[in-house]
Amino acid sequence: MTDDSAKLTAKELEARLRQVGAERYHNLHRFHRRLHSGGCAYEEVQAWALNRYYYQSMIPIKDATVLTRLSNAEDRRQWRKRIEDHDGLREGDGGIERWLKLTDSLGFSRDYVISTEGILPGTRFAVEAYVEFCRTRSVTEAVASSLTELFSPNIIGERVAGMLAHYSFVSSETLAYFSQRPPQAKRDAEFALNFAVQHAKTRAEQELVVKALEFKCSVLWAQLDSLWSAYVEGAVPPGAWEPGSVAKARGEAA
């Protein structure tokens, strides 16, 4: 049993969480480095955008699950902004719409992307495990799992600069999703960090907060592992999108 007399201070807990990011965040993954350094083939960028859509599309569903578990009205008001950011306040707005503009530019039909028919099994399992984690664990753990946003502004800067420098088939317009995220992520991370610090009242609960962030890092890492296996090493699993199979992906007759 953890000794609660050893409870971490707020600064110590934040330092532990930031250390998780330094050691486990997916900016360290070899696929991330390949993508941002210009090492990816066009089809690998396509596969990344197609599979990442599923993660983006499930974020507001995950956030809606957490929203129902927040008992304080002000907490709900703050958390609701996350759903609005991704879904938008009207049709044609929001982060998911901006992500679809990226997949549009890479030759996929929207119907195909939204269907998630071509995503990797590893993508689906990782994303759905994240949603389930936020549904079944304590609300403090669910909120803490979102703290990868502490580190996302840096990876977004690397991603946009690297992709614009190395890939002629992307532009500032097609990468518009990322231009909106840094201020949103900063706001959301500040809320989540304060919430975790306030609600993890024992050392044992603080350890669960750290574990929640480790789990989320694993969710992101597992998605890139799947991409590497399928599209760098060429072991595309049955049913997943195959590079060069553009007819169906574009909504054309085969």
From TrEMBL:
Which enzyme class?
Answer: oxidoreductase
What Pfam families does the record tag this protein with? TENA_THI-4
Q: Does the keyword Flavoprotein apply?
A: no
Q: Which GO terms describe its molecular function?
A: pyrroloquinoline-quinone synthase activity
GO terms under biological process: pyrroloquinoline quinone biosynthetic process
EC number annotated for this UniProt entry: 1.3.3.11
* Top-level taxon of the source organism: Bacteria
Question: Which InterPro entries does the UniProt record give?
Answer: Haem_Oase-like_multi-hlx (IPR016084), PqqC (IPR011845), PqqC-like (IPR039068), Thiaminase-2/PQQC (IPR004305)
Reactions catalysed according to its record: 6-(2-amino-2-carboxyethyl)-7,8-dioxo-1,2,3,4,7,8-hexahydroquinoline-2,4-dicarboxylate + 3 O2 = pyrroloquinoline quinone + 2 H2O2 + 2 H2O + H(+)
Among HAMAP family, the record links this protein to: PQQ_syn_PqqC
Q: What does this protein do?
A: Ring cyclization and eight-electron oxidation of 3a-(2-amino-2-carboxyethyl)-4,5-dioxo-4,5,6,7,8,9-hexahydroquinoline-7,9-dicarboxylic-acid to PQQ.
Name-wise, this protein is Pyrroloquinoline-quinone synthase
Q: Tell me which species this is from.
A: Methylocella tundrae
